[in-house]
Amino acid sequence: MNLQTQIPLKPQQYNQIDYNSKVLLLGSCFSENIGNKFAYHKFQSIINPFGILFHPIAIEHLITRAINKDYYSEDDVCFHNEQWFCLDAHSKLNKASKDELLSVLNSQIDETLDNLVNASHVIITLGTSWVYRHIESDKVVANCHKLPQKQFLKELGSVDTITESLQAIITLIKSVNPKVNLLFTVSPVRHIKDGFIENTQSKAHLITAIHNVVEPRQQLYYFPSYEIMMDELRDYRFYSSDMLHPNDVAINYIWEKFKTVWLSVDALQTLDKIAAIQTKKEHRPFNSNSESHQKFLSKLHLEEADICAKFPHISF
User: Suppose 108 and one of 49, 62, 200, 235 were both cysteines; which one would form an S-S bond, judging by CB atoms 3.0 to 4.6 Å apart?
Assistant: First the structure.
């Protein structure tokens, strides 16, 4: 008896990710979930230099500024609740000092550009079609930073608007890195604060817009994170306590699916060795001075050295 619908997935034939690949992940908190898997397994990866970005227009703004080296000035930052912040960035970049914030923002501009130029793969996870427009500046923001709601207008991005934004993202990235592989996905996190019907409409706009631009022959791909969560993990036991975010079981499940499609055979073999090393490093001995533990450590160091010799960018 089959108690689960399975989304058919095949290994990607070309341009798979291996340990020589450089991966940049941008977008929603689900980008961070998958990005943490890349980091744990020691891939060359960077996650959200400007923090979590929920919608495509925020990602487009970041990429545009980075490629144009459009550095931030004091006119671009604000002060509220005893912190300096930027409406283009997540609150994790907030600082107590204006100069410190500007320094961080502009260093992230440089880092983002460097990663866009050198990335073999850019993975973009979109979370919502809903955006907030700052009334005073008439600009769509990445984050409202808990400013009074009356300062913003809430808008639903149309399919055409999102498609245009994605096309701009593709054109911008390929202008500095023509050979890059762009992989789009939709976050399975439900934005219920927008409303149940509104969340469904939002996800539908994202999915439709992505499929308007995806073209494997141009190295533009789609991975069905959202569909896996909705169809294969159709049960609240796969959600966190808020019943909105995928829990660790779901994240691990989607990661396993991603691995089968996008990681090369050699990468999978290396990943298994690194995962084993990471597990051993978490081991806590009863007696750290025992002979058996010292042998365990010696063997572990040899395993680490073997990986590092093959991939010098890896450190444990």
Answer: 49
Q: What is the DSSP string of 147-182?
A: --GGGEEEEEPPHHHHHHHHHHHHHHHHHH-TT-EE
22-282 domain in CATH 2.60.290?
no
Q: Quick one: three-class SS letters along 63-79?
A: HHHHHCCCCCCHHHCEE
Q: What is the model's pTM? A: 0.95
Render pLDDT for 48-73 as a digit per residue (tens, 0 to 9).
Answer: 999 999 999 999 999 999 999 999 99
Would you give the DSSP letter of residue 238? G
Q: What is the DSSP letter of 247?
A: -
Place of tokens 């929920």: 54
Angle between helix axes 159-176 and 196-213 (nearest 10 degrees) is 40
DSSP class per residue in 28-47: SHHHHHHHHHHHHTT-EEEE
pLDDT score recorded for residue 284: 87
The yes-or-no verdict on residue 4 having pLDDT over 90 is: no
Q: What is the 3-state secondary structure (H, E, C) of 248-293?
A: HHHHHHHHHHHHHHHECHHHHHHHHHHHHHHHHHCCCCCCCCCHHH
Instruction: Burial-class residue 198 by CB neighbours within 10 Å (0-12, 13-18, 19+).
Output: middle
